[in-house]
Amino acid sequence: MSEVRIGVIGTGVMGTDHARKLAGGIPGARLTAVQDFDAARASALSRELDVIALAQADDLIAHPEVDAVLVCSPDGTHAALGLKAIAAGKPVMIEKPLAAERTEAEAILHAEMAAGRRLVQVGYMRRFDPGYAEMRRVVANGEIGAPLFLHCQHRNESSPSYLTSDLIIASSAGHEFDAARFVLGEEIASATVISPPEPRHAPGRKPQFIVLQSASGAVVDIEVYTDARYGYDVQAELVCETGTLSLRPGPPTSLRHAARDGLVVPGDWRARFADAYRLQFEAWILSILTGRTNEGSTAWDGYMTMLVTDACLKAWRSGARVEVEQPDRPAFYR
Amino acid sequence: MSEVRIGVIGTGVMGTDHARKLAGGIPGARLTAVQDFDAARASALSRELDVIALAQADDLIAHPEVDAVLVCSPDGTHAALGLKAIAAGKPVMIEKPLAAERTEAEAILHAEMAAGRRLVQVGYMRRFDPGYAEMRRVVANGEIGAPLFLHCQHRNESSPSYLTSDLIIASSAGHEFDAARFVLGEEIASATVISPPEPRHAPGRKPQFIVLQSASGAVVDIEVYTDARYGYDVQAELVCETGTLSLRPGPPTSLRHAARDGLVVPGDWRARFADAYRLQFEAWILSILTGRTNEGSTAWDGYMTMLVTDACLKAWRSGARVEVEQPDRPAFYR
Amino acid sequence: MSEVRIGVIGTGVMGTDHARKLAGGIPGARLTAVQDFDAARASALSRELDVIALAQADDLIAHPEVDAVLVCSPDGTHAALGLKAIAAGKPVMIEKPLAAERTEAEAILHAEMAAGRRLVQVGYMRRFDPGYAEMRRVVANGEIGAPLFLHCQHRNESSPSYLTSDLIIASSAGHEFDAARFVLGEEIASATVISPPEPRHAPGRKPQFIVLQSASGAVVDIEVYTDARYGYDVQAELVCETGTLSLRPGPPTSLRHAARDGLVVPGDWRARFADAYRLQFEAWILSILTGRTNEGSTAWDGYMTMLVTDACLKAWRSGARVEVEQPDRPAFYR
Amino acid sequence: MSEVRIGVIGTGVMGTDHARKLAGGIPGARLTAVQDFDAARASALSRELDVIALAQADDLIAHPEVDAVLVCSPDGTHAALGLKAIAAGKPVMIEKPLAAERTEAEAILHAEMAAGRRLVQVGYMRRFDPGYAEMRRVVANGEIGAPLFLHCQHRNESSPSYLTSDLIIASSAGHEFDAARFVLGEEIASATVISPPEPRHAPGRKPQFIVLQSASGAVVDIEVYTDARYGYDVQAELVCETGTLSLRPGPPTSLRHAARDGLVVPGDWRARFADAYRLQFEAWILSILTGRTNEGSTAWDGYMTMLVTDACLKAWRSGARVEVEQPDRPAFYR
């Protein structure tokens, strides 16, 4: 195979962005089909990009001109679609989360193991962000010693009204959990959650402060504040035995204007992680073409992130520290 | 009074620094006497600075040419000396902590209230650091909304071998507790402590991660890492409803040299807080001359910081969240 | 055409880098052939990348499986190869400079105009660097007013011994001249050159300070220091009427280690401009596929940069301000 | 003498600021008298600060309770007042410039030499700014080699309408000339001036770009833009053989708010150089008390800065490079 033909399921904001990128912007990839439960939306995009529109996700997965599937549909459909792609023997990238329910995620693990080869990648794109990748590299080679702390801040400019305090843990924090496991290279052992007061402009939605401890004891603290008003901002500082490494915000220029000197903060995540999305796709395509694995999140990673999420929700409800369940990691996922 | 004549008790590293500064560097202050349990040390300094050396702290406090007393002797002596200064009706600045034991601190509160005027200031100099002062100002005037988070990092280059994991909480973290109360302008309600592993180069001494929650619910997290090797580094980020404010490290220049571009990190706290110490002395002297209060730590502040410390130690030992005792604040200290 | 087949002439350091990138890393591009005057070098690369090796540049240009040509051979060969590509009707990207001699450059302009379509692009990749692109955007839309100053610094870690003071102007400064014309969107009118002393570690090679003035009067000052030891560093600050915009150095992380806090400075330009090279290739390929122009340097740009260079050399030799020749810009290049 | 009694001549904006600072804020200094050509203004300040108001500058200089004089009156009066202070044998600090006319400056040099001791200091306070002081220190000890370049930017938010293009050179740039001489530790040999266009919002007032070359050949380039709108901003980068040192803007905190992340830029110079003014006064008082010299500008420094200014004005008018006159430096000023 010298080219991977891709079908995209779900053409909402993110699916549309991805489809446009895959239609010509990723070496070795060719977009061939799109599908959405809203047929008109899929149809419009298919005309724009000159690809097939299919009415049913099953038809897309089965289509002979689709070598690999990208799942961008609502969270509740992820697992079922992932299982169908596995059944069809086709590589599938699933936007986070892997599944809505734990049993679904376990079904995917079993199906993939039964298939005998890695077919599933979860779209935790931060692993491909040059900043997080550098943090991982520095932990792996130990050049400033072993990790002691990982301080994380995740801020959105504003959030939709359906986002509730528990969804901030269950959904918004997911990228942080995966990033912590990736950077530290180990599992998360326990979780504690403390909530500051609601900001007055976002009643009913508490920011969250999540403290995890990894298997080796490193402390990971995560601020999630989804209504920070000033912009979209993701920060992290890794503290190792003899030094620290921090993310630097992305802008390629610094502006002095109107009594301020510094960076323009973007309103959403797209500019911040544009490189990460591109590099994630390039790595995925290369893996499909060569059979070699990449740094991306596996089904196991997606599953463990769900268990961390479960522990955080329990910790939040109870006010106590909660251990994260630690199922045995199958050899297949080592 | 147009000039305040000061006696310094304790001429170790910090007492000597302070004495030199007071001997000519602070408007309205004049150093007149020094005392140390090591008479030779006090005597050498008295000759250098052309002031009296006294053998006994009591004599210094009582001396007619001493209008105000600065206590820099070991922690265990702070309370007794503070009480004597109060008894003599002389203003006293006590290096942190206010006292070694809670009952001692309470004795000071009672004595000062009995004296009927504020005589005690505790040397938590960060309140006079321009960065912390700006944080306090921004909280007080609400220009970016109410505080939600205060992220703090306190790192030393290295530490003496007597510093143990519990002393990191009991002693090193003290400045952070006072700074949090000062910036937020309210009491601390609860404490949780989580310890990452010991760094290999400092066995027997765990870094600490302390999570406080203030009366209004703001979350304060404090990393204390006393063996960070790369230098002395104090960071803080205040997160309010619509913006954040961060400390900027101090150097007035940025260096590009030897494959690095950035700041030189000092080895200890003196350069970092030189301005804060000077401004603290200036404010203290001005208060003595005018009778007006300043932003400095009162005996009440010193006492409450001790109660926060007690709660942190209990939280560390138990692994659970511990409420901070909240004695009624006397009208005298409002 | 859905794919552009590319042949690379010259497989030195830069040609090899480019060839590897084109062999799979650029959407729509396919590397098909390489050539070098050192046949063994070309042959080794052809085996590594599984493409044809050709003995003669002419054969590569003429080859039916080569749709477009990338010229990375020595400067003296650029013009002749460019002319042959034009004669063959094939798009050609020429690494800077466009030509070694002015008459050669003029021959290219005439040949391209005679061909009736834009075939030549010069590899001044900074135009595709996100930082310079943002500067250009800000000038073009006038959001901080008209440009008054452009301060530029170009520093290399070290340089080969053949680099002399005049070559610093004639060769190293070329990227700066093109970048200034690009950012300001106008021609350079005059040049003044002042040389500081030679650094002791690089005898015989003076750093240069070049001051240009644009057609509208904006002042462009350029420091070129090719032996700065601490690393490769390109800086620029654009000063407009009501604000300034500065390049930010590239690293995605900031390091605190060994008494320093800041960025790691790379030793050469490859990491700094990796994105610019990639985006330049993507834009070139897209232009070939669609026939639409891109932001890249045209033959006219390459020619005008040569005239700026000539004026700078004269200014350096004479110590006086020298006007840049201003030939009429043909309608073809507007 | 254990205290220096100071009289201030000229109680405009700067004289009033200085008088308030000297009235209690500088160790060893006591403000005793003020004078202004506007008697009411001097009188109001004298009441505020509880000092004498005098009607005539001569009376202030002669007053028995004035040990030292600070001259903050209009530029045209500086030299005459300086000469009178010298005649009275009293130390005098003269706000920049030393004199309005060259012959006046020479008269001061002769008078001071005749007096046989250093009595004059010129208020180029940047020498006491911690950033410039660090630059000087690094040049003096050679830790990153010899200086090659000094890039300077001086920007004001806005300027009064009487400021003309030539006054930008004659007045605004003065601090830069003194700073360059101070940092490099040598004289300025030549000057070239190039003017960009006038900004549209400040017609009749061109920003200026001044290029100096020092005795050793180091190149100093100075942007002076007095209508930069975004705020008051002074930048400098010193480039030495193996590294560079840059000023860092002053704020002790960094703000994220309203889609920006960075520093708040002040509207004028007072906050930026508050430390420098204080340290300059402290050094001046200490010199008077001890007889030891300090790092401040001498009459010679003030004179040489005038000669640099003269050369710049000639260079601006002629468009050519102009040599700075180099009178022999008397042994008295070495």
Helix fraction of chain A, binned, reads 25-40%
| Gross morphology of chain A | globular
Low-confidence stretches of chain A: none
Oligomer description: homotetramer
Q: How does this structure look, described?
A:
- The structure is a homotetramer of 334-residue chains.
- Chain A has 334 residues and is an alpha/beta fold.
- Chain A has two domains: 4-122, NAD(P)-binding Rossmann-like Domain (Rossmann fold), CATH 3.40.50.720; 127-272 and 305-323, Dihydrodipicolinate Reductase, domain 2, CATH 3.30.360.
- Helices cover 37% and strands 24% of the residues of chain A.
- In chain A, the strands form three sheets. Chain A has a seven-stranded mixed β-sheet. A six-stranded parallel β-sheet of chain A has the order 3-2-1-4-5-6, with helices on both faces.
- In chain A, strand 2 (29-35), helix 2 and strand 3 form a beta-alpha-beta unit.
- In chain A, helix 4 packs parallel to helix 5, helix 5 (102-115) runs antiparallel to helix 11 and helix 7 (165-172) runs antiparallel to helix 11.
- Chains C and D meet through strand 7, strand 9 and strand 10 of C and strand 7, strand 9 and strand 10 of D.
- Chains A, B, C, D: Keywords: Oxidoreductase.
- Chains A, B, C, D: InterPro entries: Gfo/Idh/MocA-like_OxRdtase_N, GFO_IDH_MocA-like_dom, NAD(P)-bd_dom_sf.
- Chains A, B, C, D: Pfam families: GFO_IDH_MocA (PF01408), GFO_IDH_MocA_C3 (PF22725).
- Chains A, B, C, D: Residues 4-124 form the Gfo/Idh/MocA-like oxidoreductase N-terminal domain.
